[in-house]
Amino acid sequence: MLLLGAALTSLSGTPASFLDSARAAPAVRGAESAALLPRQQVLRRTLRADPSQEYLLYVPGDGGRGAPIFVDTHGISRNVEEHAALFAPYAEKHHVVLVAPCFPEEEFADYQRLGREGHGRRADLALEAILAEVGVLTDASTTKFYLFGFSGGAQFAHRFAMAHPDRVAGAAIGAAGWYTFPDSGTPYPYGLGPGPGGELRGVRFEPAKFLRVPMTVFVGTADTGSKNVRRNETVDRQQGVTRLERAQRWTAAMRRAAEARGLEPLVTCETVAGIGHSFRQFMQEGALGDRVFDGLFRASRAVKPRSQALAPAEAVR
Question: What is each CA distance from 32 to 4, 45, 96, 261, in whole angstroms?
């Protein structure tokens, strides 16, 4: 295991300074039991059952016994170290175990869509294997977990929540490029129906279940560029052109689907002024860490309420 983050002596430092210290930290080797597993450090681990699979792990200072698990999913730049380092102070503050899976492009080229048959390894199954190991190592609660993703990771996060709603306590979706809509008449991954785009073996999309998962979409008002945004006639007509427009359309579609079934709509969207498509900018200037943990854990008695007020944001219902 490699130490990526220095021990946290306090939470007064900024996430950026934590990231800088993480990059300069030396390598160490940790123990394999919950009692001796290093705490307050971002560790790079190799999955015991699959040496080709890596993930990052952070256990707070008071340990992981019974703690919630927060899964943080990187985008297509695979900046998993940056994600883990910037979220580690929040995991410490809120007493949760942080897990950041690594999905290398050569093995998980289609991880954003969970990994359809014939399109590389299944990322959803890889995450389940990681969580099973983390539960043993940390004694954290693995019955359900909290899920976040940014950009390509946000694609993974919302599709995982729709495919495996019984596993997700809540999801935060950070500026996905495009979405799977709750439409059984449209083939996956644009909708829930079967089609030539590849299948998810063993997955049955059940709106009555996934519409009960609380989800919040976070997107900046300046996230209107076209770089790395999927563009074709189908997705543009269904979802719009920019990440901002697509986030709002998907939120509205999910809320309509819930209302049509007599369910309380649990999907919301927060737009944050002046933020473009940058994870680091969103964390440092858009209070994304506070927004995510507030959204995921506001109803949880296991965490303390945040003390800092958020910058103004527009709620889209």
Answer: 17, 11, 19, 47
Contact 230, 238 (CB under 8 A): no
- Any idea where the domains of the chain sit in the sequence? 2-316
**Cβ atoms of residues 113 and 179 within 8 Å:** no
Rounded Cα distance between 33 and 91, Å, is 20
Contacts of 159 (CB under 8 A, 6+ apart): 112, 113, 114, 180, 189
Q: Per-residue confidence at 33, pLDDT binned at 50, 70, 90?
A: low
pLDDT 10s digits, 250-273: 999 999 999 999 999 999 999 999
The secondary structure of 78-117 as a DSSP string is --HHHHHHHHHHHHHHHT-EEEEE---TTT-TTGGGT--T
- Please answer whether residues 145 and 71 qualify as being in contact, where contact means their C-beta atoms are separated by less than 8 angstroms: yes
3-state secondary structure of 227: coil
What's the residue count for the chain? 317
**What DSSP string runs through 2-22?**
EE-S---S-S-S-HHHHHHHH
Q: How confident is the model at residue 34 (pLDDT cuts 50, 70, 90)?
A: low
Max CA-CA distance within the chain?
55
Superfamily of chain region 2-316: Alpha/Beta hydrolase fold, catalytic domain (3.40.50.1820)
The set of residues, in sequence order, having a beta carbon less than 8 Å from that of 28 and lying 6+ positions away, is 1, 2, 3, 38, 41
- Joined together, the tokens standing for residue 172 give 């935060």
Helix (H, G, I), strand (E, B) or coil at 272: strand
DSSP single-letter state for residue 301: T
> How does the average pLDDT of the chain come out, rounded?
84
User: Where are any strands of DSSP class E within 229-317?
Assistant: 267-272, 313-316
Handedness of CA 252, 254, 255, 257 (dihedral sign): positive
Q: What is the pTM of this model?
A: 0.84
